[in-house]
Fold this sequence. Notes:
By secondary structure, the protein is an alpha+beta fold. It has helices spanning 33-41, 46-59, 71-78, 123-126, 140-146, 148-164, 193-199, 202-208; strands spanning 2-14, 18-30, 85-97, 110-117, 133-139, 167-173, 176-191. A hairpin with a 2-residue loop joins strand 6 (167-173) and strand 7 (176-191).
Amino acid sequence: MWYPLISISEITTSNGKKLVVQDKNVIMKHIPVKTLLKNLLEINGLFNALTEYMEFLNNDKTAKTNVIQGQLWQKQISTFHKNGIVIPLFGYFDDVETGNSLGSHAENNEVGSVYVMLPSLPPNFTSKFESIVLSDIFYTNDRKQYSNDVIFKRFINKLNDLRENGIELVIEDKNESRTVKEYFITTLILGTTLELIVSLDSHRISRKLAGAEFSV
């Protein structure tokens, strides 16, 4: 859905330098991440594949190939006390230049995109486009003008909600169904070097994420 970011009164000049005050609505596109994650994980067989792969990683002592085998994830789940399955979540941010072959640095039609991925999904699924869950799309110039707080507020609230309240999944096993509670902890915020330095204030975001102990 499109929702308003901010409503302002903008002063423009017209008709011989006459000042005209006009209302201007700044909007961005938001997609409900919680609903998309639920739909994703309820795909037939995917949830079981995820839990089996996580169990394999936890038992594999030969090499560390996934974030859930690292110290950061172990530290995060050690302070998380809720009944249910807990999995890591990666947040991504990047700028995209539409209709310009020169790339995003031209800044003519630049839009920002925010999306999430689940790193504990089996490798044969994480390599697919369907594993990317889009959250927000906005004009880059709006972020620069109205601040990161305005742009990323809703996304951060959704990440906190996924951690604190989780999602109830209905998993179909053969001819039976069961309800599973799943929680998501934001483990990494990722992006290109430019976006991370210019666009994402990691200290500011970490203070706003519940139980924040993650890496940028």
